Structures are given as C-alpha cells and as structure tokens.
Amino acid sequence: MKDTKPKTIARVLFNKGDSFDWKELKSYTKDGHYRQEIDGISFDGHRVLWAFTFVPYTYLKESDLSGDQWRKGGEMIIYRNAVSVFREFCRDTERAFRVMQYKMPLLQEFDHWDDLVVGRKMYNHDVPCILDSVCDDGEIIVRTEDGKPFPWAFKQEEKKEDPKNYEDEWKDKDKVHVLSEHLWWWRK
Description:
Elements: E1 7-15, E2 20-30, E3 33-38, E4 41-42, E5 50-61, E6 69-80, E7 83-90, H1 93-109, E8 121-124, E9 127-134, E10 139-144, H2 157-161, E11 173-177, E12 183-184
Antiparallel strand pairs: 1-2, 2-3, 3-4, 5-6, 6-7, 8-9, 8-12, 9-10, 10-11
C-alpha cells in the first residue's frame, strides 16, 4: 500500500472539562498501515459525542375539575455533539431511561445529520417540500415547494369554504422531528 499524505476526513467535537472544542481528524497511510490522528496524536476516540440527561422537577398542576396537585416530572434530553436532538417530558427516571433506550439507536442510525441544510428538497406527507429552517431538539421546519397550503391546513369548515381569507403563517409550513415517518429525504 502506497504512503499517502494526511487529509482531513472529519471534524470531531471533544470535551475540555466544562467546554467543547472542534478538532480536525486526519487520515493517511504510512508503512502500509492506515492511521487516524488529531494534532499528530493517534486517534481512537468517539467521532460523534452522544449524551443524555434527565432533569427532574416538581410542578403544580392546576385544575378546576380535579383540584390543584403537586406532581413530579422532568425533561429527558439527548445530545449529539453537545446539541439537543431530542427532548421529552417524563414522569420519572425509569421512564426517561426507557425513552432514551428506544430513541438513542434511532437517532444514531439517522443518516442525514449533515444534510440538514436550508433549501434541501424532501417530502413531508408525500407533499414536495423544502427545508426552511433547523430548530432545537432535532426539529425542522419545512415549507411546501409551491407555496400552497398543506392539505391539513384547512381543518375547519369555514376555512374550506373561503381559503382566500385563511392567513395563517403556518399554512404552507410544518414543524416536524427529523425521525418522523412522514419525511422522505431522498428527493432530487
């Protein structure tokens, strides 16, 4: 195998205690062996940093029907490279752990993290769409390519009768999680 010069193959996020930093991961061949390194030091680390947290809290549920009640709950958050990609309310730690066990593999198998680019063409509920913006917690906003409302934008009868009077900024947009089964990413 021929020796090759180091070339950047990825950017890797690493933890420096209480902060994060990006480094370039380089690969090359030397003496017939494939090598990867960062800053001249051999690399055998995580290419993608995955983490999750559960932050419990107590809150007051106010209800005229059943009366006020103090309840337990919390937020389970999954991070990819220190960015929140999934968030869900859970009543307790055990539920948060079960949700994490189910969602983490799905998020890790998701192939389009690098494709979350504004302007990307895709389908949402079989409607041709364009990625309009990327939000927190793994959610994106897509808009219809032709600017016409999504079929579900007219849910009430009065809106169906006179769609010209329907001025809703969300009529041609939808906020959806990247794991939604209604998204189809392979549109050209």
